[in-house]
Specification:
single chain; alpha+beta; 7-stranded mixed beta sheet; 4-stranded antiparallel beta sheet; 6 helices; 29% strand; rod-shaped
Amino acid sequence: MIPVIIIGVAIALAIIATITGSDKPLGLDLETMMPVLGAVLMALVIGAGAIGSYRGKFGEGLKALFAWLAIGLVVIAGYAYRFELASVGNRVVGAVVPGVMLFGSGGEVTVSRSADGQFHFTALANGRPIRMMFDTGASSVVLTYEDALAMGLRLNEADFTINVRTANGITRAAPVTLASLEIGGVREEGVRAMVAQAGRLSENLLGMTFLERLSSYEVRGDQLTLRGRGQ
């Protein structure tokens, strides 16, 4: 067992000596490689102990050694490509549960496309959950009359002064300002919005008065990603 550990340490030291002369060997920086090498050494120690139980059984011991090496390689590969694997996992979850919010590094929010080809999700408007649809064609956030009332906005007929085009045709809308609008961890305050007349809009629209305030947003394949300011 001791010789195996010594060999393992020697190999690890040789790798460290090599990578210190490279910025990112195998796509990993030195700070990332150090814990990986530590894990490899631990695997060697554990593997050496296991191999010790096969004294006199060279063939079985060799199989055990290769098994531990394979486990070590899988651990290293999983660590090195953890972000890519997380992205794949997000895609799988999104395909199984369209519209579910997935949170990535830096606080970004990703939503998968629904069966109707649109992006639907639950947002918090003035602290109240509402269903919304992503719509870059809408110049403003547009709320249904019913949801506006539910969140405490009181409107008179004279407030509906703006002509807007919706999927149901031309209607009139009332300008309002939302104290806050939050989608996942992406939050904006003082968001300009409009409220459609009663019965003229079936779902709230996430339009440009919110989107233009973000650091970025993008649609890639069947996934919508929103990034707030500072992300």
